[in-house]
Amino acid sequence: MSRMPSPEKTSVPHDRRSVVCPTRRDEVAAAGSELIGGPVGRRARLGTVDLTPVRVVALVAIGMFALGMVQKLPCYNWAWFRGAASQYTHACYSDIPHLFVGRGFSDGLIPYFDRFPGDMQYLEYPVLTGLFMQVAAWLTPGGGDLQYREQMYWMVNAGMLLVCAAVIAVCVARTHRRRPWDALLVALAPAFALNATINWDLLAIALTAAAVLMWSRGRALAFGVLLGLATAAKLYPFLLLGPLLVLCWRAGKWRPFAVALLGSAGAWLAVNLPVMLLAPEGWKKFYVFSQERNIDFGSFWLVLTQRADLDLQIETVNTTASVLMLLVCAGIAALALTAPRRPRFAQLAFLVVAAFILTNKVYSPQYVLWLIPLAALARPRWRSFLVWQACEVAYFLGIWMYLVYVTTDSKQGLPPDGYHFAIVLHLVGTLYLCALVVRDVLRPELDAVRQDGSDDPSGGVLDGAPDVFVVGSAARTRRAEGQEPAPMDGEHPGVVSRETA
């Protein structure tokens, strides 16, 4: 009798015949497919040489990005240049043209090294994002009046961000090899199209998506380097190291985690150290600004202070928000170590980034972009995804209508009570999706990704690996299934800390 392969060696074939079709498994996907001919049949060919799922996803993402650019057309033509209220009324605001002038790019100033007039003085973005902005400024055609140059700067940035959007879609499509069509959740997400060109977040998101793809292929060093670069573009990607730590702890995979951690630190230092040494005042502006920034739009802190008429000190808010974040992260770690089956990496990554967004003192509308790729990997279910997206689109409209109210003498737009409702809707929508992800972790049989026999397609070395450390209910489940003997006298009854026999 031949020996059965170990869990680490077991793999699921990844040919086209094994590709999971959402229209066969998801009611909403099946209903939506009626627009293009209905669910795929049993004898259908899943892709051709020229039109593979990844290429379809990339083309759809590019098309939706283009629609988002069209939505900004009123601002591009005139509203950015004729007062604040017009760009809010048309819901087409973007930081990009305003910061072209406001941060000195139009005058040829170099970020972090050159001081510009005003209270900010230095660019308040991480170094890699500043480089992205500077490259776009170099590519912006000269000549013409200032309005023309602002338009061209936005257009150049939009082109560069379009590349980032395509990279995100392709990376998500390739992370779960048997489920490339799940990336349509990213490509078709309405909040993705609406927010893509508000700011420069897509650069960090593209690097993060590429990092997750590398981890899914077992390339820990490449994951670490890309995650370090992503953190050099935006702060949130470093949070993914937390889920990786507890999952590697549970699986006993310390070496890949150490490689990923060192790769992240090295890449971050390689980008930041030159600016840190040569322009320390400009370099630290982002970090100082993040600490000193007051309670701002979109956060539950804003609702709390305005509804209760509180005057909270910024130090108190920073400390309380940090404590809340740490408590939630501790809860996520406990979930990872006690779940009956080791959670998937994408599930915990989504929960940690969502926790950061929910507890933060500011929620800019483009922050939803951070969660969309992780949500598609964590819970590829169209119904819950679209419910969440509806809440985010409502918030997108709510913040602009509230800004119309506060910037016009006639007080047209959405009053504070209405804006508070939009904030609560965003919070509830995000919590709703988090709750479903937690339910999938506690009841793995409900996890859409695992229903085809997969373990953790985005987990890399964790995919199919046995547990070596679990606590509480997970340990009891393992013993009940015969995976681990009952504890001997003197052993802790809720802890397993050795390899499965």
Describe this structure in words.
- This protein is mainly α and about 500 residues long.
- It has 2 domains: about 15-465, no CATH class; about 465-500, no CATH class.
- About 60% of the residues lie in helices and about 0% in strands.
- The chain has a two-stranded antiparallel ribbon.
- Helix 3 (about 55-70) runs antiparallel to helix 8 (about 145-175) and helix 19 packs antiparallel against helix 22 (about 415-440).
- The two termini are about 20 Å apart.
- The model is unreliable at about 1-15 and about 485-500 (pLDDT under 50).
- One of its GO terms (cellular component) is plasma membrane.
- InterPro entries: GT87 (IPR018584), UCP010361 (IPR016570).
Contiguous low-pLDDT stretches (5 residues minimum) are 1-17, 485-501
Largest sheet: 2 strands, antiparallel
Kindly state the percentage of residues in helix. Answer: 55-70%
DSSP strand (E) fraction? under 5%
H/I helix tally: 23
Task: For the largest sheet, list the strands in their spatial order.
Answer: 1-2
Rounded mean pLDDT is 88
Q: Would you report the number of β strands? A: 2
Radius of gyration, Cα only, in angstroms? Answer: 24 Å
The coarse overall form would be globular
Cα separation of the termini: 20 Å
Count of domains: 2
Structural class: mainly alpha
Write the H/E string, N to C. Answer: HHHHHHHHHHHHHHHHHHHHHHEHE
